[in-house]
Every structure is written in structure tokens, then in C-alpha cells.
């Protein structure tokens, strides 16, 4: 076994043990998708989950990417790739399966789009939406071999368009967008980080159950803000309300009005 193959095997084993991943299909997808294919050429600026500053890898050997580390996309803006263990956990929680239609909002450079592509298979589809024009162009290039992935440059609050089994949001918002909820098929799942202006908040999972929705807090997170995320104290209070209320018990509601659950 080569050094790179051994590093990939250790990477998958680390994520599996840390997050108690229950899906063998997800572990197989993580093993199959080369992380280095979704980044610029190294050396890379990387940091651990708790790290405050980046360190530069000693060279451009992809073996350095097969650890549970963040990799800088734009260090100046503190924009990084998603932490592998964290997003593997979320994907596992969403129970993404074969033939599912997945909407990904904030796909970055497309690494997790490729993982999702493997999970949904040839009869499924991934619509990867990215608001940043340059990132979307790079993601489209990297994802060329993944024929069931469509990359869209645009607003993730407007470009969903079709019904989805899973919507996964990779950026912080003050509340779930009504369009995301309306786009969920029966039994569909939405995962969205609801954060304040300091990027801190909680990830919320919302499941469609008939004509109603059920929301529950998953865990705390710190994440890059989404395009169009409100920048007022009211937005912060709305995000805080969701975090506190969904942590106490599952929230059941029919829709969203002014950012809050409604039975209207």
C-alpha cells in the first residue's frame, strides 16, 4: 500500500470512529473521493478544528490533506473547506441515500458535492449552488467527472427550483428560508446552521412530516456567513431564539413568518 493510500485509509477510519458513522456507503464515498482534486496545488494552509492560526504544509504531498483539518480557500476572509468529520457527521445524520435529490447551498470547491454524488448514485442528483463566481467556476471544473452533479452560480435562497429529498446548507443564516421548507419532499430533510454575526450558532435539522415540519438542534457550530445573511441585532435575536427553542424540544410548525415558526 502506498503512503497516500495508507493515509486515506487512516483518514476514513478516524472519521468513522470519531463520529460513529453508521453508513458504509458514506465511508466508501469518503475513501473514493480524492480530497486533493478539490483544492489548488499545494503546499496548503491548514489548521485543526480548534486551531486559531494556519500552518503551511511542508510540501505539496496530498498525504497532508488526509487528516481532520480545515484547508484555507481564502485565508484573508477566513474561508475554509468544511471540517471532514463534522460534515461527514451531518451527511450521515441526513441519511442521504441512493436516488435522492440533494440540494447543496454553499458548495465551495465541491469536495462534499463529490461525496454526495457517490451516495446518491447514477439515478440520484446533486444540485450544488455557490454564490461566489470564482469558487463556482472552480467547483464546476473539479466536478466535471461527476455526471450527476450540476453546479449553479447563484443565490442559494432562490436557485433551489425543484423538490428535494435533502437540502444541506454550508453557511450561516439567522433562520431557515421559507423557500427551502417549501422545496422539501414528504420526509425531506433540511440541515442549516443558524448563526449570529460572530459566526457562532447551532445547526438545526428540519424534517418535513406531511404538511408540518419538525426542527431539532443538532450541535454548536462556527461557520462562514451566507450571502444575504442579515446584519442586525434582530437577526441575531432570531437565530438565538431558534437555537434555544429547538434545543429544549423538537419544534413543530407549518411555515415561517418573519423568520420564526408559524402555524398560520
TrEMBL record:
PANTHER family: PROTEIN-L-ISOASPARTATE O-METHYLTRANSFERASE (PTHR11579), PROTEIN-L-ISOASPARTATE(D-ASPARTATE) O-METHYLTRANSFERASE (PTHR11579:SF0). This is Protein-L-isoaspartate O-methyltransferase. Belongs to the methyltransferase superfamily. L-isoaspartyl/D-aspartyl protein methyltransferase family. Transmembrane segments: none annotated. It is found in: Cytoplasm. The keyword Repeat does not apply. It comes from Bradyrhizobium sp. LLZ17. It is an enzyme of class 2 (transferase). InterPro entries: PCMT, SAM-dependent_MTases_sf. Its EC number is 2.1.1.77. The keyword Cytoplasm applies. Pfam families: PCMT. One of its GO terms (cellular component) is cytoplasm. Keywords: Cytoplasm, Methyltransferase, S-adenosyl-L-methionine, Transferase. GO terms for molecular function: protein-L-isoaspartate (D-aspartate) O-methyltransferase activity. It comes from the Bacteria. SUPFAM superfamilies: S-adenosyl-L-methionine-dependent methyltransferases. One of its GO terms (biological process) is methylation.
Amino acid at each position: 500500500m502506498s503512503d497516500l493510500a495508507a493515509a486515506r485509509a487512516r483518514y476514513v477510519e478516524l472519521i468513522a470512529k470519531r463520529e460513529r458513522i453508521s453508513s458504509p456507503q458514506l465511508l466508501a464515498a469518503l475513501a473514493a473521493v480524492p480530497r486533493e482534486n478539490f483544492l489548488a496545488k499545494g503546499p496548503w494552509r491548514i489548521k485543526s478544528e480548534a486551531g486559531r492560526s494556519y500552518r503551511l504544509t511542508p510540501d505539496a504531498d496530498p498525504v497532508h490533506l488526509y487528516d481532520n483539518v480545515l484547508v484555507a480557500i481564502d485565508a484573508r476572509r477566513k474561508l475554509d473547506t468544511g471540517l471532514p468529520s463534522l460534515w461527514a457527521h451531518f451527511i450521515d445524520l441526513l441519511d442521504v441515500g441512493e436516488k435522492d435529490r440533494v440540494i447543496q447551498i454553499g458548495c465551495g470547491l465541491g469536495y462534499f458535492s463529490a461525496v454526495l454524488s457517490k451516495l446518491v448514485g447514477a439515478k440520484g442528483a446533486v444540485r450544488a449552488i455557490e454564490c461566489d463566481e470564482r469558487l463556482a467556476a472552480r467547483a464546476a471544473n473539479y466536478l466535471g467527472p461527476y455526471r450527476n452533479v450540476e453546479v449553479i452560480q447563484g443565490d442559494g435562497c432562490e436557485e433551489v427550483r425543484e423538490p428535494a429529498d435533502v437540502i444541506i446548507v454550508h453557511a450561516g443564516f439567522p433562520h431557515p428560508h421559507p423557500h427551502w421548507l417549501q422545496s422539501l419532499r414528504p420526509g425531506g430533510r433540511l440541515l442549516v446552521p443558524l448563526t449570529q454575526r460572530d459566526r457562532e450558532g447551532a445547526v438545526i435539522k428540519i424534517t418535513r412530516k406531511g404538511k408540518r415540519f419538525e426542527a431539532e438542534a443538532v450541535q454548536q457550530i462556527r461557520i462562514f456567513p451566507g450571502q444575504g445573511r442579515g446584519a442586525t441585532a434582530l437577526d441575531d435575536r432570531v437565530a438565538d431564539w431558534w437555537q434555544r427553542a429547538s434545543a429544549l424540544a423538537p419544534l413543530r410548525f407549518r411555515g415561517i413568518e418573519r423568520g420564526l415558526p408559524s402555524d398560520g
